[in-house]
Structure formats: structure tokens, C-alpha cells
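Go through this:
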Amino acid sequence: MRVTLQDIAQAAGLSASTVSRALRGYGDISEETRKKVLEISARLGYTVPSGWNTAAMKRKRDQLLVLSSNSHQPSATHDLVLSGVRDFVTEVGISLNLLDLAGDLTNQTLDMLKSQQLGVLFIMPTTTHPIMARCRSHGIPVAVANRSADMLAPQPIDIAVHANERKVAELIVKYLIDKGHTAIAFVATDPNNCMMRIRTLMMKDALTEAGLPVRNDWLLFEAQAPEKYLVQMFRAAEPPTALVCASDNAAFRSIRVLSEAGLHVPGDVSVIGVHDLPISKLFTPSLTTVHIPLRQIGYETAKQVYYWHPGNENICIDVVFQPHLVERASVRSI
């Protein structure tokens, strides 16, 4: 089992970003912190890439290549991640090259990326993509924003920046239990989306660990279940009292469907989302949700790609952001 930066960060009580900068020899890290990180790295058996902490590491790169499956019609979540990427490239003064995954990278482009030691950043890929394997076969690092390496296994990932999805589910279940809810339903979007699969799995685990029932008829995917199923579920003789949505957008759609059927939120059904999109606080009712720092995730992924340097192929840069719950008006106590 390979040791990741997150393992070192947890043992040192630091962020993964701080650990990365300490190992790379950045001047803004104190000598005491650097020594602590190096000692823990050695104890855990982490091999620091030979190219790190060298002048070559700090060689200026002039562009960042970003690939997206919906670059022409970005979603609100995609736009926030991309905004963070733009923040970073503006800060360091490089250009942003945004391409759509519907295309492909030529061998000439791959050779150029390799010669300039440039990585490729994928924004929220829904699943693995052949370009990832092609990049890695050319020695080009693959970075994913708002996805963990586990979500895309068995495809190897060099840099993953994402939220703690287990914590997301735990925050939601604990909050709903504190509000008196023990009958909890869950709706996600597409089962083919790796994030939706993970959030469904994490929700099942959180419910089970809390001693609450996990009913398959209360777990819906929008892509498979017509809207009438959602209404039927909450009009049953013993319906769930709360609906957890795997995204804020799913929550907005669910509230609309329930409202059109004469079911009121939160009077009849409590609803909670994930992401904390800017519109969440303006929605009616304002949406209780879990905040995912999407813009920071985009910024950190771009930074990790920019400062990446070839080294031990077993190295996995894994940066995890912690979510927090934002209470608004869409959940009531019972």
C-alpha cells in the first residue's frame, strides 16, 4: 500500500498542501515544520521524488492544459472549480488552455507536454477517459479536480484534490438525526457518474453506522427514476421525512417536483443538498447544504499541477478539503 501526502499530513497534523510544500523545499515553510515532515515521511516509508527540492522544480511553465467534458456548457459546480483554476493561472501569470474531452490529444501535443514537463488537469471527470492512460503512457501527470483517485480506479492518478466525501455523508446524517429524522431518503443524478456512486455509497455507510435503515426503494437515481417515483415515495403510508440530495441542483429539482405535487418543503419534506452553490441561499426555501470549497479545489489542483515534477511513479499527491454544513430553511425539526 503506497503512502500518500495525506497520510503524512494526518500524522503531522498539517494540511497536505503544507506537506507538499515542505517536501519541495519552499521558503515559506519553517525549518521546524520541514524537519518534522521529513522525519514522518521517512518513518512511514515515503520516497521523496529525486527531482523535488531542486532549482529545476521552480522552472517557469507558461501554460496549463485543462480538459473538461462540458467546457462549452459548464455547470455551476464546474464553473466554480474552473474559476479557482483561473485564479491560480492569473496569479502566476500563465495561460489557460481549455479543451473539451470530446476531442483528443495528438501525439505532437503529448510530446510537447512531456518535453516541457507539463501536466494535464481534468475538471470533475464523470469516469475514466482514454486520454488519461495516453498521458501517463507518455510520462505526463494526470490531475483531477473534485475527484479522488479511488473514484477513478483502476486508472492511476498522479494528483487528486477533492473533499472528504465520507465526512459529507456523516455531517448530513448527524444533522438530520439531531433534527429528529430517522427515515431518510437519498437521490442522486446519474449512476454512471463516479461522484454520484461514491456519494451513494458514503450515504449508505453513514446511515448504517448510525443504526438507521437503508432502503433500496428510498435510494433513487434521477437518470433511472421518473419524477413520479419521488412523489410516490413521499405519499406512501409511511414515507421518509427527509430527502438527501447528492447535489444542490438535484435538491432544486426535487423541491420543484415536490412543490408541484402539493408537498411543501420543509413542512412535509425536509431537503438537504451538497455543494453550497451561491444560489442556494437565494432559493425558496433557502437550502440547507454541505459546503464544498469548489473554487479552492480548482486553485489547489492547478497549483499542484504547476509545481509537479517527475519522480517516483508510486507517488500520489492527494489533497483533501474538509466540508462543513450550512444550515438554512429547508430542514425542520420533528
About this structure: The chain has a mean pLDDT of 89.
